[in-house]
Write a structure and sequence with these properties.
Elements (H helix, E strand, L loop, with lengths): L2 E6 L6 H12 L3 E3 H11 L2 H10 L7 H12 L7 E5 L5 H10 L7 E6 L2 H9 L1 E3 L6 E3 L26 H15 L2 H7 L3 E5 L4 H13 L1
Parallel strand pairs: 1-3, 1-4, 2-3, 4-7
Antiparallel strand pairs: 5-6
Helix pairs in contact: 1-9, 2-3, 6-7
């Protein structure tokens, strides 16, 4: 059975971690709109340079750029047998376009990871990323063994510009205005499950898996 799943929630609510878990447990490939955009930034493409202007300020990248990237992935062989979308759609306009794209094989389940702003700010501002291998650490609970140095490749870890507190608070505010209304949209379709994102990771993973197996 082809499964088509959306993970919603504010930045830092754990969507990416759960997506990786679902990929292992259910064999569902996942794509993050943020990852697609950052890949364009790293490649220095025209779209990447444009997207970086918005990402660094904590603003949403314009719909046309995000839709182009996600549609390209959905049309690839990676998405043929189902998928988990992480961080997309981010607003009602994107959700309605996605419904049109998937009219014949619609989204099956939407899982919303709900969390207050204070928890999100603590999580994201404590995040450190290795610029070389991409490994992510969480201070103080999952810090590198040697202060500031990646365990895997020995590179100095960094705090991304979009993980700094003023940017995080702006991103959360945008989430509340732009993305939170999607809960009502998918609840009306009978597809929404809400998970408390402040719960321990194992409980979040179990709740997400149960929602798809139920």
């Amino acid at each position: 059975m082809r499964r088509r799943v959306i993970l919603l929630g504010p930045p830092g609510s754990g969507k990416g971690t759960v997506a990786v878990h679902l990929q292992k447990e259910l064999g569902l490939p996942h794509v993050s709109s943020g990852h697609l955009l950052r890949r364009e930034v790293e490649n220095g493409s025209t779209m990447g340079r444009r997207a970086k202007l918005f990402i660094d300020k904590g603003e949403l990248v314009p719909n046309d750029a995000v839709l182009e990237l996600v549609n390209s992935w959905l049309l690839s062989s990676d998405a043929e047998e189902g998928f988990v979308l992480d961080g997309f759609p981010r607003n009602l306009a994107q959700a309605k376009v996605l419904d049109e794209w998937l009219r014949q094989t619609p989204i099956e389940k939407v899982i919303l990871f709900d969390s207050p702003e204070s928890v999100i700010v603590d999580r994201i501002t404590g995040r450190r990323t290795c610029p070389k291998c991409g490994r992510v650490y969480q201070l103080p609970t999952l810090a590198p063994s040697k202060d500031g140095v990646c365990d895997d490749c020995g590179t100095m870890v960094v705090q991304r510009e979009d993980d700094q507190e003023p940017v995080v608070r702006k991103r959360y505010d945008i989430y509340r205005r732009e993305t939170e209304p999607l809960a009502a949209y998918y609840r009306q379709q009978g597809k929404l499950t809400v998970v408390d994102a402040t719960r321990p990771l194992e409980q979040r993973l179990s709740a997400a898996t149960a929602a798809l197996r139920g």
